Amino acid sequence: MKKAFLFIIISTCLFLTGCDVMKDGTMTCTRKESKSGISLDLSYTVDYADGFVTKISSSEKITADDSSVLDLYKEKIEEQFEPYKDVEYYNYDVSIKDNTLSSKTIIEYDKIDTSKMIEIDSNNGQLIKNGKISIKTLKSYYESLNISCEN
Fold first, then answer.
1. What domains can be seen in the chain, in order of their start residue?
2. How many other C-beta atoms lie within 10 A of the C-beta of residue 62?
3. What is the pLDDT of residues 109-124, one digit of tens each?
């Protein structure tokens, strides 16, 4: 009888909280890949509260022996970031040192004007709903890109 009662209490608690095991914390997502003389090392640290992303810090490294490949990647990444240069709480840095391109980005989603982000690129609206990004949605998105995530 006690086990049945305990089961009912636990089930009720899970039902009332929506079984949301990803309420507050930090999620780390990574992907490493090497192909055709190019190595990728991607790392994303995602802070979240109440099930919504508050901050993403990314570090993306591309290593290649051919400097023209790195120059091309740098040009494309800078083109991608250019529209966000004046958006408060969106910070990025792209640099090349030796045979590695490093791109670091910090986006504070709990402070940033998400409508401005959608205005810049409507694709942001696929993740941003009602001014927020659900941690579950972001995790699914990363995993669709073969990026592994752990809480």
1. 21-150 (3.30.1830.10)
2. 20
3. 999 999 999 999 999 9
Gap between the Cα atoms of 147 and 60, Å rounded: 12
The Cα–Cα gap between 59 and 18 comes to: 33
Distance between CA atoms of 113 and 74, rounded to whole angstroms?
Answer: 26
CA 79 – CA 63 distance, rounded (Å): 20
Rounded Cα distance between 11 and 39, Å, is 46
Report whether 69 contacts 97 (CB < 8 A).
no
pLDDT given for residue 151 in this prediction: 85
Buried b (16+ CB within 10 A) or exposed e, 23-47: eeeebebebeeeeeeeeebbbbebb
